[in-house]
Amino acid sequence: MPTVKINRRLLNRDKLEAEITAEAVRVFAECGYEGTSIATVAENAGLSKQNLMYYFPTKQSLYQRVLDEVLDDWLARMESLAAAHEDPREVLRTYVQAKLKFSRENPWASRVYAMEVISGAPLYGGQIQNRVVPLVRKDIEVFEQWISEGKMAPVNATHLLFAIWAMTQSYADFSAQMALVLNRKQLTKKDFDDAEKVIVDMVLAAISVPQPLSGDDGR
User: Fold this and answer.
1) In 3D, which of 19, 8, 114 has the Cα closest to residue 62?
2) pLDDT the model gives residue 9
3) pTM of the predicted protein model
4) How many CA atoms lie within 13 A of 90 on its CB side?
5) Which residue ranges does the Swiss-Prot or TrEMBL entry mark as DNA-binding (predicted)?
6) Contact (CB, 8 A) for 114 and 71
């Protein structure tokens, strides 16, 4: 029985922390780190400031949790790029789809991360250096392997990734501007579907291995 009570208490804590971070993501995205107060997050979460600080003693600890969750999700999607045995076209298609899905379903999280990076990553640079850089290098090694095997055109793999990040994340970070251009309040699922087709076509065109002309024997 005590074990059941402890497990239930842990589940309740996890649920409450998830609710707090969900509210914190929105506030950090709207106000930035400096403009966010623990009191505002607590009020939005329906808690007292003291109650919230029992789970997150400082604003920085709450901010760290928010960015940890964003980065965990992002890196989980990046891991699929390191599948060297797969067709690079399908790997990159799946990656673009996953990145756009994240932008559509988690726009506030994407904006918090973008704001931290734009400001020079003063509070999270170490995590990015330690967690993102090694995985990016691993993915680039796979791209270079594909290139050496003739499965992928000889492109700069680092800048290919930068381009994919920019194209997909902009649909979260700059969605307000896009919606204004499209003359609507917010982007629709069709907008994301249309974006996916364009981005995937561009990426696949960039990595496409030129086919020899008919009758060309390769000499």
Assistant:
1) 19
2) 55
3) 0.86
4) 5
5) 37-56
6) no
